[in-house]
Design goal:
- With about 290 residues, the chain is of the alpha/beta class.
- Helix content is about 50%, strand content about 15%.
- Helix 2 links the parallel strand 2 and strand 3.
- The longest helix is centred in the middle third of the chain and has 29 residues.
- The protein binds NADP nicotinamide-adenine-dinucleotide phosphate.
């Protein structure tokens, strides 16, 4: 039996690199993205362009989706030309978008009714993790379906972990984003503080990065701030989407997460200034350090 046919919907910052690894591993890929040009590089590598999510779902055995927001996920699965408009019996759908756990469960249930399987498998590790195939992948859903697609997930990630039933991947990702909110705030404030204190930023980063403060944000995003590079990486608009989901899920559990709420409000302020398409490292601009160096 040949390798399974792979479908890929969403070829943005993350999806393009991830799908590229799958093609490099020898899988035949069928791709769709809202803006066609963003799939050009993949088509040049041999991927087959499809004109809708439904067409991808009809041609592939295993379909990955990594789009932007919950409304995009809903359209890609439940829309008139969405995946579930095709005959999907026996297929596996893996949504890698960071989205609402409840939406994930809705997809899981509909897939079951249609004779298919669905997993939530959001990722962490950023644009760099996607490019270098070193993502952390956190999966929820049926364990047998997870085992079936594990060899493909291993092509894009270095840590692929089954978290539990449908939605458990998204909840794990929310825990991840709660940590990231804290580290983004800490790293940004440290850089503004160090700049005001007249420290050499590069030396400071190297020094504290080797101690207890060392973390992904410090290693990967602080150097971008130092260079004045505020391109995304990970877009502020997407991060606010994630923090709002986490705040709402926490409220549903009767919890309040004040540090998360504060960081979310700082990013919302950046959005209101029209900076939502910048990378999350632009938080320094909120605390007055746009030219930290
Ligand atoms: P992105 O660059 O905006 O990519 C999303 C892609 O999905 C875009 O190319 C977009 O099309 C496409 N899309 C959106 N709605 C669609 C639809 N209805 N039908 C077909 N295609 C659609 O975003 P990203 O940075 O790759 O992030 C994708 C997801 O992963 C987000 O949920 C994000 O929160 C999450 N994530 C991102 C990172 C990161 O560091 N970037 C890390 C972990 C998780 P257009 O080209 O038309 O916009």
């Amino acid at each position: 039996m040949g390798k399974q046919k792979i479908g890929w919907i969403g070829t943005g910052i993350m999806g393009k690199s991830m799908c590229s690894h799958v093609i490099d591993a020898g899988y035949e890929a069928f791709v769709f993205n809202r803006t066609k040009s963003k799939a050009d590089e993949l088509v040049a590598k041999g991927a087959v362009w499809c004109k809708s999510a439904a067409e991808v779902a009809s041609k592939a055995d295993i379909v990955f989706t990594i789009v932007g927001y919950p409304k995009d996920v809903r359209q890609v699965y439940f829309g008139d030309e969405g995946c579930f408009a095709a005959d999907v019996k026996g297929k596996v759908f893996i949504d890698m978008t960071t989205t609402e756990p409840t939406l994930t469960q809705e997809i899981f249930k509909r897939a079951r009714i249609l004779g298919a399987d669905a997993l939530d498998a959001p990722v962490s590790g950023g644009d760099r993790g996607a490019r270098e195939a070193t993502l952390s992948i956190m999966a929820g859903g049926d364990r047998d379906a997870f085992e079936k697609v594990l060899p493909i997930l291993n092509v894009m990630g270095k840590s692929v972990i089954y978290e539990g039933k449908a939605g458990a991947g998204q909840h794990t990702k929310m825990a991840n984003q709660i940590v990231i909110a804290g580290t983004m705030a800490g790293v940004s404030e440290a850089m503004v503080y160090a700049s005001s204190a007249g420290l050499d930023i590069g030396t400071m980063l190297k020094t504290i990065g080797g101690g207890a403060a060392g973390c992904w944000t410090l290693a990967n995003l602080a150097p971008r701030v130092e260079k004045g590079d505020f391109k995304p990486g990970f877009m502020i608009d997407h991060f606010v989407k994630d923090m709002r989901i986490a705040i709402s899920e926490a409220q549903n559990m009767g919890l309040r997460l004040p540090a998360l709420e504060l960081v979310c409000s700082e990013y919302e302020d950046l959005q209101s200034k029209g900076l939502g398409k910048l990378g999350t490292q632009a938080l320094v601009k909120e605390i007055g350090g746009s030219d930290v160096h």
